[in-house]
Write a structure and sequence with these properties.
Blueprint: H1 2-62, H2 66-72, H3 74-98, H4 101-116, H5 122-165, H6 167-172, H7 176-228, H8 234-275, E1 297-304, E2 314-321, E3 326-331, H9 337-342, E4 352-357, E5 360-361, H10 367-372, E6 374-377, E7 386-387, H11 388-393, H12 401-410, H13 414-419, E8 427-428, H14 437-449, E9 455-459, H15 467-480, E10 485-489, H16 493-496, E11 501-506, E12 509-514, H17 516-522, H18 524-539
Parallel strand pairs: 3-10, 3-11, 6-9, 9-10
Antiparallel strand pairs: 1-2, 1-4, 4-5, 7-8, 11-12
Helix pairs in contact: 1-3, 3-5, 3-8, 4-8, 5-7, 5-8, 7-8, 12-14, 17-18
Length: 540
């Protein structure tokens, strides 16, 4: 009879074990599925955040005035768009995976521990503040180090960028060793800071493990005392230890998150510095001008000063240029020639007076409408990676092959393009490093010509050309720009002699204005410029 009862009990236990085991297996499988989904959605959210942040930062930087770009610098803007956003992206991914999971596990562990033995739970009450204080102290010390670390990444980025873009100058002046020393110094500085931070963060995990093990010892010690006193069962102690381990493990997960949080916090602050900048140059709420630009430009008593400068770069500039006229600007280095033409497309805003296009202040135009009517050829020729056709089409997105070929022919670029292996499909390296300075200059002129704007601005673009190419280019340009308003910044007198109006700048002021013949009689500064170039041009 006893044997039958024993078999019955075993059978009952087996059924219970199978039933509960199956339930536990289902819970485990459900937990696995949820963990996979959590990883998937946290990755999507964090990567989406990174994408949106990069787009927001890039869009904001594109809206910066030249002054704001100069204030930050290219190196730090690149670091903030890449490295800083990656830090924020990583911490968001970790937070989404752990921020809900770890606290829920800790809270569940605390509730279950209290249900087993409220008195023994006082050990947890003592340990948690110590744990929180440890994490807080490490985070407080690490935050300024992480800020310094991001700044040192900026510096390293700047040194590498200058070393790559200025490689020709560095080699020409035998400064390779000096640049290597600059790089080593910036790299060492960043490495030392990173090692200091990693040592600090690395110390956090052993401290956490020490506290975790000391807590387990305390639970066993005081649990043994309570068992000896008859207040607790051995099974309850074992369960209590598991709950405490759950709590401590959740704290370890949170500490891992806090290892990433200080750096992400420093990176987020740097990203916000860019996003919080309100561009000084913005479109007016209600633009006065609409429609295509006709081309009349007027400077009305314009004074402009760069931020922080002691004296104005331009002072009391007044003149008017109409369609069909060529206005040349000449003067010594630093006279303000480039600054003057940069005010027309509104790269800067004047402090006094006004720059008007078609009788409307440029500050009352939509920037896109204003610049759509301007063909700007900058002083420093800038090409983009891609084909020659793509670079010329940069001036007009829907330009046909015939328009591209015509613009290249006028710019005297068709000759060297035809000699290239793939013609207009030939690749241009980043920055145009695989073409000469004169070829780059002619391609940038073709880029402006293809859009056929109402206003042309040539900012000292003919100095990279030999006299013969310069003459042919100006002869081909004359019928093309006959109905447009043209501004030419030049160093050569031969380039400006035929202009309808020559403005002579001297230290930001108008020293003379008129035709070549008029200025020879009335302007001493212009006579000096002509006299300094006369012999050179006669030899040419």
């Amino acid at each position: 009879m006893a044997d039958i009862v024993d078999v019955g009990i075993v059978s009952g236990d087996t059924g219970y074990i199978l039933r509960v085991g199956a339930l536990m297996l289902l819970v485990a499988l459900g937990g696995t599925a949820v963990a996979v989904l959590a990883s998937y959605f946290s990755s999507r959210v964090s990567m989406g955040l990174g994408r949106d942040l990069r787009k927001a930062v890039f869009s904001r930087v594109q809206g910066f005035s030249l002054h704001e770009v100069d204030r930050f610098g290219a190196a730090t803007l690149i670091t903030r768009t890449t490295n800083d956003i990656t830090q924020v992206q990583n911490v968001v991914m970790v937070m989404l995976r752990m921020l809900l999971f770890a606290p829920m596990m800790a809270i569940g562990g605390v509730i279950m521990a209290l249900s087993k033995d409220p008195t023994l739970s006082l050990v947890i009450v003592f340990v948690l503040p110590v744990l929180g204080a440890t994490i807080g102290a490490v985070a407080a010390k690490a935050l300024p180090l992480f800020r310094a670390m991001q700044q040192k990444i900026d510096r390293l980025n700047r040194v590498v960028r200058e070393g790559l873009t200025g490689i020709r100058v560095i080699r020409a002046f035998n400064r390779v060793a000096y640049e290597q020393e600059r790089f080593v110094d910036a790299n060492r500085d960043l490495t030392e800071t990173a090692i200091t931070v990693n040592r600090l963060m690395g110390a956090l995990m052993p401290v956490m493990m020490l506290l975790m093990n000391l807590t387990a010892i305390a639970v066993v010690w005081f649990g043994g005392i309570r068992i000896d006193a008859g207040h607790m069962e051995v099974g309850d102690l074992m369960a209590f230890i598991q709950y405490v381990m759950h709590i401590m493990f959740s704290m370890m997960l949170l500490s891992m998150m806090f290892v990433l949080l200080p750096r992400a916090s420093a990176s987020a602050a740097r990203i916000n510095e860019v996003l919080d900048v309100v561009p000084a140059i913005a479109d007016p709420p209600e633009p006065r001008a609409s429609g295509p630009v006709r081309g009349e430009v007027e400077f009305r008593n314009v004074t402009f000063r760069y931020p922080g400068a002691e004296r104005p770069a331009l002072e009391s500039i007044s003149f008017r240029a109409r369609p069909g006229e060529v206005t040349a600007i000449i003067g010594g280095t630093g006279a303000g020639k480039t600054t003057l033409v940069n005010l027309i497309p509104r790269y800067y805003d004047v402090q006094e007076g006004a720059v008007l296009v078609d009788g409307v202040d440029v500050r009352e135009w939509r920037q896109a409408d204003l610049r759509a009517g301007i063909g700007y050829v900058p002083q420093r020729a800038m090409l983009f990676s891609g084909t020659i056709a793509e670079n010329i089409r940069f001036g007009k997105a829907d330009a046909t092959e015939e328009e591209i070929a015509r613009a290249a022919a006028i710019a005297q670029a068709d000759g060297f393009i035809a000699e290239m292996k793939d013609g207009y499909a030939s690749e241009i390296a980043q920055g145009g490093t695989n073409v000469s300075g004169g070829q780059k200059q002619r391609l940038t002129i073709a880029r402006a010509l293809v859009r056929r704007p109402a206003i042309y601005i040539f900012d000292d673009n003919f100095s990279a050309l030999d006299f013969r190419t310069d003459a042919r280019l100006r002869a081909a340009l004359k019928p093309e720009i006959a109905r447009s308003t043209v501004f030419i910044v030049a160093q050569r007198v031969s380039t400006v002699m035929d202009a309808d109006r020559i403005i002579v700048l001297d230290q930001g002021r108008v020293a003379g204005m008129g035709t070549h013949r008029e200025l020879l009689q009335s302007c001493e500064v212009y006579r000096e410029i002509v006299a300094s170039q006369l012999a050179e041009e006669e030899l040419a």
